[in-house]
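REQUEST FORM: STRUCTURE PREDICTION
Request ID: SP-0412
Submitted by: Lab K.M.
Chain count: 1
Length (residues): 238
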Amino acid sequence: MELEQIFRDAGDERAARALKGLLDRFLDPAFGALPKSEIELVILAALEEIGAISSEPGVYELVSKLRVTRTKARNLIYERELRRLSATELDSRVKNLLKRPIIQKAGDQFVLEVENPLVSDHLRSKVQSLGHVSDGSFSPSIVKLPLDAVVALIELYIPKNERGPVKDALVAAGAPDTSFRGVLKAVLKKVASKVAADTGEALLDHASEYISPIVDAAADGLTDKISEVFPEEGEEAG
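STATUS: Completed
RESULT:
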């Protein structure tokens, strides 16, 4: 890390602001009173202030710039975000992840790439609270969810008063008129089939345009979009 160049780019005012913030925290409540882990977070904040790291650094950025291990980098991000993100903000991050899954096994497995370890823990906690399991054995930044878990999560994040219009829009598009969760499940299976037919890929990463408006409960225009994944009568037979 070329600190001399970074300070030149930051300018005197920004550098002074970073130094003031660092000293304010280090001297509170008294010199040397902060534990090592807190000092590291204070220095991380100062590095962000002068532009040495980005406002939301990924694991590899910290590994390469700070010359720490991946485990250390993930711990730094976790502790930093724990102090910055509220439960509402964490829910918002999870919702955004649900909008752009990679679909595997003909729609039976959904893969989410979660770089932020705190968001990953929040996601897994939500899944567990809904009575489902997640698989993160392949990589700490990859979460695999079964279809039923994704359906339950999407239902959770759609307010109850907005589920009726969303369901009506999906049924009008061709989904079977069952429970709200049943409708979501049928639609996601069809999305998987549609994307597979269009791309011919084993990993299907083009489902966002169909799933995103559902997660956002954007009922307007939803029928027209989702009708693309339901064939016209007789089309499947042909």
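NOTES: The longest strand covers residues 109-113.
Reviewed by: T.R.
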